[in-house]
Structure to design on (231 residues):
């Protein structure tokens, strides 16, 4: 059984200050994923929209999206206080403070019910236990307007399959290349926190809470990225 993380421990002060240098080495295609998120939302959205950013971390997705369209506004949902501290500094340094609201906590405790024009969940759903994923999708869905997109990226797969084992091995090989002598410790720590669901089960869970179209637009090793449209 994967363990349930405490975001304030897994993403503590030390990790938070090193996160932006570390994560592009840990996650294959990290920068590409954020470029694709901008591309997807750039195609889907007009000006003056509000975007719900779940698991915002240090706000990389907000910085890239805000740069793409200067009229977009954001609500960052993030349970780790140290990550929010780093995020606030980055947002302030970019001159974006008046376009970003922060909520320190998880989505279920966000008072703002929207409705938002779009949502993102980049590299956070893997921390949600399988039996809780539908509730998180629902908490996002109920805050979205009809036809609003949700863009997500995270590790995915059915741990019972050979395909999944190969994808995990590919990621492990990648980490050995990028993190060298730290690779074994990092892989052991990170892989122990991943709550996997198959892609088919994820699509079914999304459809159960009102998303009508679910399209996977990126695959790299054990990572996938999707756009789902609220019906
Ligand atoms: C790997 S980071 C991704 C951050 C950012 N989205 C990015 O692309 O760099 C995952 C973030 O999700 C947050 N997180 C963990 N569990 C969460 C939950 N249940 N709800 C919202 N965020 C969560 C963590 O605190 C962490 O900041």
């Amino acid at each position: 059984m994967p363990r349930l993380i405490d975001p304030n421990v897994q993403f503590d002060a030390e990790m938070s200050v090193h996160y932006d240098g570390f994560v592009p080495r840990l996650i294959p295609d990290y920068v590409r994923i954020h470029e694709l998120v901008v591309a997807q939302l750039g195609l889907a959205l007009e000006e003056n929209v509000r975007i719900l950013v779940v698991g915002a971390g240090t706000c990389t997705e907000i910085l890239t999206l805000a740069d793409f369209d200067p009229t977009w506004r954001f609500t960052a949902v993030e349970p780790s206080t140290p990550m929010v501290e780093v995020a606030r500094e980055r947002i302030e340094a970019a001159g974006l403070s008046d376009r970003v609201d922060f909520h320190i906590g998880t989505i279920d405790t966000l008072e703002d019910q929207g409705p938002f024009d779009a949502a993102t969940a980049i590299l956070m759903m893997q921390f949600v236990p399988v039996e809780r994923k539908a509730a998180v999708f629902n908490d996002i869905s109920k805050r979205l307007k009809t036809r609003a997109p949700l863009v997500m990226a995270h590790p995915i797969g059915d741990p019972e399959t050979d395909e999944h084992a190969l994808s995990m091995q590919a990621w492990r090989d990648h980490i050995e290349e990028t993190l060298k002598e730290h690779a074994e410790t990092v892989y052991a720590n990170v892989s122990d926190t991943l709550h996997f669901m198959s892609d088919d089960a994820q699509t079914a869970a999304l459809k159960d809470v009102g998303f009508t179209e679910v399209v996977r637009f990126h695959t790299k090793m054990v990572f996938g990225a999707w756009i789902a449209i609220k019906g």
User: Anything to note?
Assistant: The CA atoms of residues 51 and 118 lie 5 Å apart. The chain has a mean pLDDT of 98. The radius of gyration is 17 Å. The pocket of S-adenosylmethionine is lined by residues 7, 11, 23, 54-57, 60-61, 77-80, 83, 106, 122-124, 127-128 (CB under 6 Å).
